[in-house]
Amino acid sequence: MTEAADSCQESTAAERNRYVSFIGLDCAGQARRLIGLLQPYMEDPEKTNAFWKLFAMKLSPVSGPTYDELYLIHAHLNILRDQLDMHGDAEALQLLEQIEHECC
């Protein structure tokens, strides 16, 4: 392994830069964690709305194209941010911000 590749793997979160390398970013893992935080909005009748129902259908389509979690997050960044802000979900908003900065 080269010295540059070693330094990317050992970098801190503040030093990681998707424009240099995706090594160490775990974008798929971050996306899975965010989807886990979003599940209550898709499943709880008190929290769900038309957007969450559509987002849930896109995550698990019966037919048609399938998309990975990171793609769906990227494609819906702004409305996800609005929805999470509306609910005051600081934890999910922070992770969404991290995913946007590091992975999208």
| Tally of distinct domains | 1
Q: Count all strands and give the number.
A: 0
Shape estimate: globular
What ranges have pLDDT less than 50 throughout 5 or more consecutive residues? Answer: 1-10
Descriptive report:
Mean pLDDT is 85; it is low at 1-10. This protein has one domain (3-103). It starts with a helix and ends with a helix. The chain is built from six helices and no strands. Helix 5 (77-87) packs antiparallel against helix 6 (90-103). Helix content is 63%, strand content 0%. The chain is globular. The longest helix is centred in the middle third of the chain and has 17 residues, at 27-43. With 104 residues, the chain is an all-alpha fold.
Task: Write the topology of this structure.
Layout (H helix, E strand, L loop, with lengths): L2 H7 L17 H17 L6 H10 L9 H7 L1 H11 L2 H14 L1
How would you summarize this macromolecular structure in one to three sentences?
The chain is an all-alpha fold and 104 residues long. 63% of the residues lie in helices and 0% in strands. The radius of gyration is 16 Å and the shape is globular.
Question: What labels describe this entry?
Answer:
104 residues, mainly alpha, 63% helix, globular, disordered N terminus
